[in-house]
From TrEMBL:
It holds the Pfam family pAdhesive_15. It comes from Saccharothrix variisporea. This is Choice-of-anchor A domain-containing protein. The keyword Membrane applies. Residues 349-410 have a biased composition (Low complexity). Residues 349-411 are annotated as: Disordered.
């Protein structure tokens, strides 16, 4: 291959790779790191809904409720870690099963929290109606308020139980509002018997804005169909308006259907609604985010398969869907629009330089010159995706005649979130490619000289 062609190819490869890595190294989860499975015992792949052996353990929050969590009618269970900012109140209908499971459930992904960890956390109290039972077998009920009624699991009273999660509701509200402003990439059309979502066939983030209920003309169930969604794309559905309802039969126990295949990269976002209803006979697929802290969400579907995060209150169970209502623990691993502000703070850096002066009597005098750099704070709105405000603090670096030592400590405080190190991998790879290009250039020069 001619030298100029080879150089062009190598340069193009390096440039394209650098651009590609830059564009893909900023994957954003939900605020607070919510969404993915957490811990060392996560399964490589989450299994379909089943009642077999435990498939792994997940330390992440599966259901977050900023307000009160009310168990009603014939609701049966909530898999995974459940975190409630207000009260947890169980008062099911007479004649239904008297039990409600949290943490480990009979049927689901079978990826519960680790044994001995918190299955239910509340910022308020826990109450279980007479004749009923709250089952948290193998885990803790970690509550800030009082507890009454019959339950299993370890009782863990603690006035600060909810404190580690106190900032999540505000972060989720901010994120929900931000996601709703994302530019749409496709269309959503209610065709009465189904709502058809048609993507652009190419974007890694497929965004749909819906200003209607996903119900039939009579208010009953309908299908949900997606088209034009590239493999591996994240799907964000923003359902705008003061009240929204989904009533569907789409989504099944056995994986294989289209909606099931999108489950871990599909987010249903309700940014402003005060009333949200999830009804119908489906094993609903995808994660749900309700951003209005004044909202009440009522879930009457047989199953919701994905993370469920609401800043308001939740009623699990009621008319309008199946019986034995369940939340099943499945992660959200999609990449979402950037919503935060990156705040970079540089601490003062002091550099001491040794200055040597030689006199005629061979006496050496050393003076010290100290230069101090004033702290600088840079605030930038990210051009790429960011989940929420991130604070990065660089500790002071002192340079003397010895080699300098620099320590970088990413911190997250308040509602600010730490940035992961994923972006560095791209730069290391690009550096490697540049080394290869340089090596090729040297080889060509040597070859030319020999000729």
């Amino acid at each position: 291959m001619p030298r100029t062609h080879l150089l062009g190819v190598l340069g193009a490869v390096a440039l394209v790779t650098a651009v590609a890595l830059h564009g893909t190294s900023t994957a954003d989860p939900l605020p607070g790191g919510l969404g993915p499975c957490v811990g060392t015992q996560c399964p490589d792949t989450f299994p379909p809904i089943h009642n077999g052996a435990i498939a792994g353990y997940d330390e992440a929050v599966n259901v977050f409720v900023g307000g009160d969590f009310r168990v009603r009618a014939s609701a049966a269970e909530a898999e995974g870690r459940i975190v409630v900012g207000g009260n947890f109140d169980q008062a099911k209908d007479p004649g239904s099963s008297p039990s409600y499971n949290v943490g480990i459930v009979g049927v689901g992904s079978r990826v519960p929290p680790p044994p001995g960890s918190d299955f239910l956390v509340t910022g308020g109290g826990v109450s279980v109606a007479a004749g009923q039972k709250l089952l948290a077998e193998g885990g803790n009920i970690h509550h800030a308020g009082g507890i009454s009624g019959t339950f299993t699991g370890t009782d863990k009273p603690d006035p600060d139980a909810f404190q580690p999660y106190a900032g999540l509701a505000a972060q989720l509200t901010t994120a929900s509002t931000c996601y709703a402003a994302a530019a749409t990439t496709g269309t959503a059309v209610n065709q009465n018997y189904q709502t058809l979502f048609t993507g652009d066939g190419k974007s890694a983030l497929q965004v749909f804005t819906v200003d209607f209920d996903l119900v039939s003309a009579s208010g009953g169930q309908q299908g949900i169909v997606f088209a034009g969604i590239p493999a591996g794309a994240t799907v964000l559905v923003n359902l705008v308006g003061d009240a929204r309802k989904i009533a569907t039969y789409t989504g099944e126990i056995a994986d294989g259907g289209q909606l099931n295949s999108l489950r871990e990269r599909l987010l249903w976002n309700f940014p402003a609604a005060t009333t949200v209803e999830l009804a119908g006979g489906a094993q609903f697929q995808g994660s749900v985010l309700v951003g209005n802290p004044a909202s009440t969400t009522t879930v009457t579907m047989p199953g919701v398969n994905g993370r469920f995060f609401t800043t308001g209150s939740l009623t699990h169970g009621g008319s309008g869907g199946g019986t034995g209502n369940e939340f099943h623990a499945y992660p959200f691993t999609g990449d979402l629009p950037g919503c935060g502000t990156v705040i970079t703070t540089t601490e003062p850096t002091t550099t001491t330089t040794e200055v040597t002066t030689t006199t005629t009597d061979s006496t050496t005098t050393t003076d010290s010159t100290t230069t101090t750099t004033t702290p600088t704070t840079t605030t930038t709105a990210p051009a790429t995706t960011t989940t929420a405000p991130t604070t990065t603090t660089t500790a002071p670096a002192t340079t003397t005649t010895a080699p300098a030592t620099t320590t970088t400590a990413p911190l997250a405080g308040g509602d600010e979130l730490a940035v992961t190190g994923r972006g560095l991998a791209g730069f290391f790879l690009v550096g490697g490619l540049l080394v290869l290009v340089g090596t090729a250039l040297l080889a060509l020069v040597a070859r030319r000289r020999r000729s």
